[in-house]
Amino acid sequence: MTSEARHVLVLAGGLTHEREVSLRSGSRITEALRSEGLEVSLRDADAALLPWIAEHRPDAAVIALHGGRGENGAVQAVLEMTGIPYVGTDSWNCRLAWNKPTAKQLLQRQGLATATWYTLAHDTFRDLGANALVDALAGSLGLPLMVKPINGGSALGSSAVHETADMPSALVGAFAYGDVVLVERFITGTEVSVTVLEGPDGPRALPAVEVVPASGVFDYEARYTAGSTTYHTPARLDEQATGNAADLALAAHRILGLRDISRTDAIVDEHGVAQFLEVAVSPGLTETSMLPMAVGASGLHLGRVYADLIEQAIARGR
Fold first, then answer.
1. Cβ distance 262 to 283 under 8 Å?
2. What does the alpha-carbon distance between residue 62 and residue 30 come to, in Å, rounded to a whole number?
């Protein structure tokens, strides 16, 4: 059977804070795959999904769900249970990548650079006193800092702290998305995203995308509001720094056991060292998302890339 005859399920939506972004990603990849001649069914991850899968038995699935519904391994596990091959990382390794401190720790153990951090639960601030803990964090890590939920994507709940007086509001914002936060040293440098794409010859890094948000912080608004961020593809880095960013993304893909396609976010500091921030196993596919920019800069077509990944997933399923 050729890819033109495939029936592909695209999962998008979900009941998360990133639902709107996911729907935009799902619509874009649906049109891209249809342009390659595939039959595509765009479905939400709801109570009607499993009966639909049982009735229609698609050849493969593409997960365009973002946040917990698409990246914590749960929907991947459901697809594994139903025997539907899918593009992307398996359910077990999704869990590793989804938890930011776990991913940072695994990469740091392999000698890769990442900002010094602490994880703290909401209860800790309540039990020990928020003011004392804020002072301890500033004394240990210095200022500025980044505060973010340990899980989640699209920079939801993430903010920079330049003065200790800013910390309470940053914590409130992060705790709105979970009971544990990650506080890490703020790294100054060039922010980049590097997509890793697996093909017959193994994984390769696509051109790095440099992000320059007008606000100075690549938050949710900067990511998804047209005109809020300037992108440079390839990133404006020298050859060595470009290689360092690519090597970091490839290492993250390997160490975390990722599969098919992933996107690593990093800061390249003043010394050209690529500092790991986090990794996405279900990268955004919207008009302002970095993965399509990297694909385009490589001279590739998004629909063809995913059609090939679908064939890899089906072959793997056999």
1. yes
2. 9
Cβ neighbour number for residue 50 with a 10 Å cutoff: 12
Q: How confident is the model at residue 156 (pLDDT cuts 50, 70, 90)?
A: confident
Closest CA to 197 of 304, 110, 81: 304
Q: Flag whether 278 is marked binding.
A: yes
- C-alpha 109/C-alpha 141 separation (Å) is 20
Rounded distance, CA 70 to CA 43, Å?
13
Cβ(160)–Cβ(24) under 8 Å? no
Whether pLDDT at 118 is above 90: yes
Strand order in the sheet with 60-63: 39-43, 7-11, 60-63, 86-87
- Please state the separation of Cα 186 from the chain's center in Å: 19
Least confident of 17-21, 46-50, 86-90, 254-258: 17-21
Alpha-carbon dihedral sign for residues 65, 70, 74, 76? positive
First to last CA, the chain: 13
Q: Give strand ranges (E) for the chain.
A: 7-11, 39-43, 60-63, 86-87, 117-121, 145-149, 159-161, 180-185, 190-199, 202-205, 209-213, 229-232, 261-268, 274-280
308 appears as a binding residue in the annotation: no
Q: Which amino acids are annotated catalytic?
A: 18, 154, 289
Cβ-contact 222, 229 below 8 angstroms: yes
User: In the structure encoding, which two tokens stand for residue 58, read together?
Assistant: 């698609």
Residue 65 has pLDDT above 60, yes or no: yes
SS3 label, residue 189: coil
